[in-house]
Design goal:
This protein has 111 residues and is mainly alpha-helical. 67% of the residues lie in helices and 0% in strands. The protein has six helices and no strands. The radius of gyration is 16 Å and the shape is globular. Pfam families: DUF1244. InterPro entries: SMc04008-like_domain, SMc04008-like_sf. It comes from Rhodobaculum claviforme.
C-alpha cells in the first residue's frame, strides 16, 4: 500500500480537500444535530468553526466568529439554527452530558 505523501504541499492539499468534503457533507446533512455529533464524536460544526477561526488568528488573518461560522455552516449561524436546529431531547442532552468531561480538555476539541 502506498505511503502518505511525504511532500508537505501535497499532504496539505489532500488534507484541505478532505476538509472541504467534510464541510460539504455536513452542509448536506443539516438533519444531523450538533448535540448528537458532540455526544458521538466530541466535536461539531461549532468546533470546526472555532478551529477555523483559531487557525486564522495563528496566521494573522483577521476573521471573526461570525465569519468562521458562516464558512462552516454555509450561511449565517442564526439562520442555520432557525432552519435546522431542534430542541435537544432529554436523551440527547443525557448523551451529551455523559461525554462532556472526556471531550472538553486537552486537544482543543469540543465545548
Amino acid at each position: 500500500m502506498p505511503d502518505i505523501p511525504a511532500d508537505p504541499a501535497t499532504r496539505e492539499a489532500l488534507e484541505a480537500a478532505a476538509f472541504r468534503r467534510l464541510v460539504a457533507h455536513l452542509r448536506a446533512r443539516p438533519d444531523v444535530q450538533n448535540i448528537d455529533m458532540m455526544a458521538l464524536t466530541g466535536f461539531c460544526r461549532n468546533c470546526l468553526s472555532r478551529w477555523y477561526e483559531e487557525e486564522a488568528e495563528v496566521r494573522g488573518i483577521p476573521l471573526d466568529r461570525a465569519a468562521a461560522r458562516e464558512a462552516i455552516y454555509g450561511m449565517p449561524y442564526d439562520d442555520w439554527k432557525a432552519r435546522h436546529q431542534s430542541e435537544a431531547s432529554p436523551a440527547q442532552q443525557a448523551a451529551f452530558d455523559a461525554t462532556r468531561d472526556r471531550d472538553s480538555g486537552g486537544d482543543g476539541g469540543g465545548y
